[in-house]
Amino acid sequence: MRFIVLLLGFLTIGLTAHAQNGVPDMPAPIANLSAEGAQIRYLGREHGFDAWLTVKNGQEQYFYVPLNGTGFVMGLLFDNNGRVVTVDQVQRLRDKGDTLLDSLASVDDITASAPKEENRFSFQTPAERLFHDMENSNWITLGFQNAPAVYAIIDPQCPHCHTMINAFQSEGYFDRGALQVRVVPVGFSAKSKAQAAFLMATPDPQARFFRHLAGDEDALPVREDINEQGVERNLALMQAWKFDVTPMLVYRSKDGSVKIVRGKPKDIPAMLADLAPAG
After folding, report:
1. Could you count the other beta carbons within 10 Å of the beta carbon of residue 23?
2. Which side of the chain, N or C, has fewer Cβ within a 10 Å radius?
């Protein structure tokens, strides 16, 4: 008998999985992630487990569902020789041409993260609630992750958004680590919505977005196989807060307050000087 080593804990929940054309029904937790905008891939069945990959906000997770459907395990799958089965599963899917997996097919890149404890922050002001909503939206990063951050709601087809990001880039703020823009992609047309969804799904969002800004029409393709629910959730957030333009910026200042900038900042150096340090 082969022994399977699984990282992390066993989470017992009710699941059902009925094979349809070789792909089982999506378990409820994974379906919920899909509804939140995550990209989902079925990795196949090995060692008595159906394997699923989810990618959300650039973070991948791996789920293994036993055939009896009574629960699931989150983490990496090893065989009894210590080989990482997960890597082989991802590589096989990548070999079929799935570009979403380009950055995930090595032992170093494939990592599993435990579920984070539920945020129990007590929102004392609407501004704090807004900041929490922005933190938990679907976003991608421009710049270094340890740089001071600004959340920016952006439509890929918005010329004012292009002007703003180009200004940040031309001044070298990204390269110097002076600024990190957490882009919250939205789309006000079918084309821009599809481009926003692709931006969240691609493994190289910064390079793709900069190519898009430089006029490369192929940088953000319109594809039917990309889940757009993440963009829809971002749009719902925008509408809930009655934001009516892009870009719309939200950040925490050095004094701890939450600030909003409607449109391109008039004084970029002043905004950068006001940003709270990366936490």
Report:
1. 12
2. N
